[in-house]
Design brief:
By secondary structure, this protein is mainly α. It contains eight helices and two strands; from the N terminus they run αααββααααα. The chain has a two-stranded antiparallel sheet with strand order 1-2. The protein is elongated and about 110 Å long. The protein starts with a helix and ends in a 55-residue tail after the last helix.
Amino acid sequence: MDQRSGIRDQRAIQASCPIPSASFCGMGGRPRTLATVLFAFAALLFVAGCRQDMQNQPKLIPERCSEMLADHRGARPQVANTVARGQLREDSYFYTGVVQAASGYREEKNEMPFPVTLEVLRRGQERFNIYCSPCHSRVGNGMGEIVQRGYKPAANLHDQVRLSQPLSHYFYVMTHGYGAMPDYASQLTPVDRWAVAAYVRALQLSQAAKPEDVPSGTQVKSLKDVATQNHLPQNFAEPWMLPSSAIQAYPHDTKQGTPGMAPANPADPAIKIPASKPAPAAAK
């Protein structure tokens, strides 16, 4: 092969190549350098788009510290006297059941924060039967179904201690609980707690009612007659007694009476504080 035939073969190869670039046809040159630059530029854009700010974003995450604040507290405290929408609660007695007495301590009151209607009492009866009757029973004598199965007897709402307590005391106990009784603030709204308190007072009046308390012209039926009409057991109107498995904190005190035919518990034991110094001798 002479030199002239070799040049002709090279030109033929270049003519058959679809890309007018010798480098992509395996001959090397400037186009290969351009492709390298484009690839490097694309890689640079990819790396620039993967900055750490996408992973470590400058934001506040609950229960985590923050480096962009001086005290490093992610959860910021509320501004003083801040009130959330719908949580002003300007009527504190309605939401707490207590007022501040002259002595500075909280004081319960024997009054409702809104008028008591028949609808309020019906609502209170419904809530009472759902949440209170399992322990206190439907008549409030403290011998509900779970008490008859071994739970600690609940308070008898008809003994002298509970009858002497102000109306808002029941609201306060439902809000915060008392003794073995848990609070029912999550189950009962403030309006429902007041409705239950009003129904408790009506229940106390009903268990101690006399025939002369009924308006004239109203027919009075005995509990036995009501039980018969509603196809209830014969022992429905008989006295309710605690089972032997029940845990009784105090012995029965019959002097307090037995409203609702239930054994009453004595008042809470008095707390006696010993005198800091002996009392002066009486003058002879």
